[in-house]
User: What shape does this take?
Amino acid sequence: MTVTAVVGSQWGDEGKGKVVDFLAEQADYVARFNGGNNAGHTVINEFGTFKIHLVPSGIFAQNAVGLIGGGVVIDPAVLIEEIEMLHKAGVGVDGRLWISPRSHLIMPYHKILDGLYEEAKGAGATGTTRRGIGPVFADKVSYNGIRWTDFASGAFETRLKMQIELKNKIIAALGGEALSYDEIRDTYRGYYEKIKPYLRELFSLVQDGLKADKNFLLEQAMGTFLDTDWGTYPFVTASTTIPSAASAGLGIPPRYITTVVGVTKAYTTRVGAGPLPTEILDTTSAVYEQFGEVAATTGRIRRVGWLDLEIVRTAAQLSGITELCLTKLDVLSGLDDLQVCTGYKLNGEPVRYADVDAYGLENVEKVYQTINGWNEDIRGVRSFEQLPENAKAYVKIIEDATGVPVKWIGVGPEREATIRR
Ligand code: GDP
Ligand code: IMO
Ligand code: MG
Assistant: This one.
């Protein structure tokens, strides 16, 4: 039995989707356990190009059964659309995708409130994906949530009615339009009918799988520094994004997690507000252009920065990362010099990420090391030995800083564009 958790070691979008897609070859179960459709995971394989938000990215492996744990929050319309998209692409999920009835539903008022809060905060806004994530998790922990299980138990109508009354008052106070109970009830009843065949309590399935020595691949959404507790609060997301979330979010005891794969982008990106210590601020510079990315969920332009080793080092410690997958090394080709942040200082003294808060992080002095770049196009390289010497040195710096081996290196977005060591 192996239980492998795949986690992002930066601010999300490290390339987790691609990594989960290729690791799924060996998995019996592929699972999501946190977040919701704020996640956007890109998978490029023989079925096509996909931006996946809720279904585990490992679903393309026909041997694997997909699980969506109770820790995930679900926008039913997005899930239905995603299942249909997969069917159209020839990826059947019937009988091999199971959703926990414990998972909470994103309701129309969650999305409305997400937007109203963001607007009220003005310049202090979080820059959320506006998918209702903060409000749905707030309802979950304040006992106001609506779960799939509420349809079967008959609690749905009463709980919804109560919430609509409550939320309409808040929405009105913030200047929004009142919602209709009847309309939402009917729409969500329709969603339930479509999702019902996929609902199944996962407890016995997971426990039996562990007992039968099955291989589990757990796909985290978002990244370590968007974690509610350990991220750059308040510029974070509303769920736990470190591997321990798999315990509550899927029902896997922590001691069963055998491997933690840390996905690390060869540079750094961030979407939304909050500190990005190594940020490249000149948006007209060639390097900004080279690192440029468009967000998979919202289509926003991602902020970019140099590789920050203090960030990756902290993630490796916090999540107990046992092996690293370095992605997008190909994107660095053609730069004469590369900057790598080796650590922070405050008042001339070394300081760790965890010693300062999000506002303090804006003021730390970054210590940079300049590394010679390489000109070769490495997209066709499939063995570590064939990499240019300076690219090898770049990989070694990451291993030395974290004490964790880099086991895979991404040299392109496609599944096969990967160096395995
Ligand atoms: P995720 O949220 O962690 O799954 O990452 P995203 O899919 O949001 O963003 C990662 C982006 O990098 C996507 O456009 C991927 O197709 C792309 N990508 C992943 N790995 C590599 C790689 O090794 N090289 C290149 N050039 N692109 C990659
Ligand atoms: P994946 O799984 C990058 C960011 C948002 C915002 C903050 C809070 O694709 O790596 P939210 O909508 O969650 O309330 O927004 O978190 N964020 C992500 N950034 N990748 C993600 O997911 C993200 N999910 C949320 O941009 O700054
Ligand atoms: Mg993403």
